[in-house]
Amino acid sequence: xxxxxxxxxxxxxxxxxxxxxxxxxxxxxxxxxxxxxxxxxxxxxxxxxxxxxxxxxxxxxxxxxxxxxxxxxxxxxxxxxxxxxxxxxxxxxxxxxxxxxxxxxxxxxxxxxxxxxxxxxxxxxxxxxxxxxxxxxxxxxxxxxxxxxxxxxxxxxxxxxxxxxxxxxxxxxxxxxxxxxxxxxxxxxxxxxxxxxxxxxxx
Length: 203
What we know:
alpha/beta, five-stranded parallel sheet
């Protein structure tokens, strides 16, 4: 696939991190999770890992459009699950978008690669039935401390050990991701669904 100007179109990101901004999740993702995932993927991948996380969007950028573009151009989605995740139209749109991509690929190939990697940050008991049926999520509830001082505790070694496994499994997802295609499905939250021609994820 090529741009009109002749350049090759490809993924911009390996991983899109989807998470709620409510509760302790946001600072945990910023202070610990995204950092360790980046470092371990650097150890594992043959090229520099490219991770999209929305706190890196520059101030003044059009958030819905920027999120849409990032999701469409990401190989896989890492979903950080907590009860607020499933109450967020944006988070659900991101998750459903990647699920639709998997379903579209399965219709073509008979078997789709895994493009969604769920993390259980908190609870699990109040997740919707659809999420509870998914057994492959990684349990990180005991490491859900969002403050920077968490890195100075003995528990952080256990967290890093788990993150090594997370990175290995995410790397396996990336290795099976299909080539980029134009027209990946993207779900837009109802509150932002003014344009029927365009679909946008999250916040």
